[in-house]
Design brief:
By secondary structure, this protein is mostly helical. It has 9 helices and 3 strands; from the N terminus they run H-H-H-H-H-H-H-E-E-H-E-H. Helix 2 packs antiparallel against helix 5. The two termini are about 40 Å apart.
Amino acid sequence: MENPGRILRIHAITVLVSALLMAAKFLAWYLTGSNAILTDALESIVNVLAGAFAWYSLWLSFKPRDHDHPYGHGKIEFLSATLEGSLILIAGLSIFFKSIYNFIYPQEIQEISTGIWLVAGAGLVNFMMGLYLRKKGEKAGSMTLKANGQHLLSDAWSSLGLLIGLFLLWISGEVWVDNVLGLLFGAYIAWVALGILRKSVAGIMDEADFALLEELVGYIKTKRKKEWIDIHNLRVIQYGRMLHIDCHITLPWYYSLQEAHDAIKDVDQTIYEKYQEVELFIHMDPCIPHSCRICSIENCEVRQKPFEAMQEWDVATLLKNQKHGDL
């Protein structure tokens, strides 16, 4: 797990670099008067504001659980992504409507070559920072880092398209090309914003993360033991780095309380080996005669039905809120 202090330092550096890039883009717009370059500069304001709030969100999410926040502070990352998505959406719509305005009232373009070099440099730096932040976000399980990294990458790709358009503008001298670019990039930025907002709202609403569920179920299957007769009613929620996992597990009914406790502890330890930041709530169910069909425990003296086959574990079966056994 990535050190929280190091993640915060990395993010603080990216915010500082974003502020420098924003200054470079506004300089390019001041020199050229290009509406398309202005779109890139306006989005850079979003980069800086969203990045600063994202840093605060990360700092807060790394705080340990307390009496007021028994599930930790990780959910602040969803609010951070919501703010970032909202700011990006506002920037995209502003760019879009300003481009329409400039179709009616054209603006003179100049010093295009200087603007091209400034935009190219800023786009390259954004691309490298975006890749780095997304990689760190995936490693740390941080929605904030991944969202900010994805935002910087989208900014870099839009800068690439902007460079192509500026080159066409440079060689053609047609001002309408600049306005078309503004419309396209404004629409693209708004689309990226809607994607970020959808993910943040899904997190706030505790929408199931099926990619995470597939990973968890696949891992449990590789560690499966005979006494773990059945798992059902599986629920997984992620807040920042912390996973909250709930499930029911079916154990032999004749287990003593100590044996059942040891079996649950074994499940806990198995999951902790893969997910260090995790909180588990496992409910124990005793097996019933119906369970004998999927129970592979050998020499069971109380078996009432012959063993047929172990229940196949996949996301669909483990999410069901019922014991299994009908084959």
